[in-house]
Q: What sequence folds into this?
């Protein structure tokens, strides 16, 4: 059991209160994981700046990475959040399950991306040469590679915060991958 509750607006710094207000306006609520970042005076703002930075990856491509990484890191909160976001970006339930498994039979380029993200995460950055070669052969660039690695790091931060604090899930709960196959 975690010793962490989800802090309420009045329990965080004024800078984080302003971020909470902006999140309320933008998405309609403050996700519990973001609120948990607010235990730190700076972490929430720093993370949101990092997570929303420019990248060569499109929204669907980012979700492919987020789903693969969160599955490897066994982060139920992020799997639930990114399943919902993946659906908002046009992925079907079946496609989301494949992406969580680190593949995408429905799209060769996304397949190479999901396989790379899974491999990087599983091997802590020591990427298999064949996976990397497949990534480039599928049409991805060196810029895409670097942006993918940055996104793996971004998602791993959230995965680790959740897995340590056991943040209550405030999205529809994603089922364990094993239970769905």
A:
């Amino acid at each position: 059991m975690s010793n962490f509750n989800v802090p309420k607006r009045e329990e965080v710094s004024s800078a984080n209160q302003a971020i909470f207000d902006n999140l309320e306006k933008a998405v309609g609520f403050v996700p519990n994981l973001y609120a948990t970042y607010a235990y730190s005076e700076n972490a929430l703002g720093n993370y949101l700046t990092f997570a929303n930075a420019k990248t060569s990856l499109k929204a669907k491509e980012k979700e492919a990475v987020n789903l693969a990484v969160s599955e490897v890191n066994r982060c139920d909160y992020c799997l639930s959040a990114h399943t919902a976001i993946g659906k908002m970006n046009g992925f079907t339930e079946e496609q989301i399950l494949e992406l969580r498994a680190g593949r995408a039979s429905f799209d060769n380029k996304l397949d190479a991306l999901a396989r790379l993200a899974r491999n990087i995460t599983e091997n802590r950055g020591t990427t298999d040469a064949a996976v990397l070669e497949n990534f480039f052969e599928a049409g991805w660039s060196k810029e895409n590679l670097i942006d993918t690695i940055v996104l793996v790091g971004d998602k791993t931060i959230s995965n680790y915060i959740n897995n340590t604090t056991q943040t209550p899930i405030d999205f529809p709960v994603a089922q364990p991958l094993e239970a769905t196959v």
Notes: The mean pLDDT is 96. The chain has two domains: 12-51, 59-180. The chain has ten helices and no strands. Residues 12 and 38 are 6 Å apart (CA to CA).
